[in-house]
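Below is how a single chain appears once it has passed through the pipeline. First comes the sequence as given, then the structure the pipeline wrote out for it. We keep one example in the README because the format questions we get most often are answered faster by looking than by reading.
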Amino acid sequence: MIPDFIIKMYQDAYDTYPSITQTSNVIFSGVEQLTKKNKIIWFYNLCNKNQEFIKDALIEYNTTHKIMVYVSAIDVERVYKLYILSTTESKNNVDILLNGLNKFYTIDF
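Resulting structure:
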């Protein structure tokens, strides 16, 4: 699940406890799409020789609507679980984000 310090980072940024939406498994391309267009505010990477592998990250997705995305690798094949942290008022924006991720979903095991 989501580490306590990630929840605390959200609370510190937006002065509220987040609502949480958990996605189906997402391939790396979906994570890559999120990181290209948004700011990573915390990460934990694994490095092996010349390869870097995102293990966990917190992405600031939309400050206006108070949305952050916690990304957590579930295996070394670059499959991730996403946790969308938001307020109840930003539910429509979360739905838009989820719709945009549709092509990146894979089978949950």
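The first strand starts at residue 19 and ends at 22.

See the next section for the split statistics.
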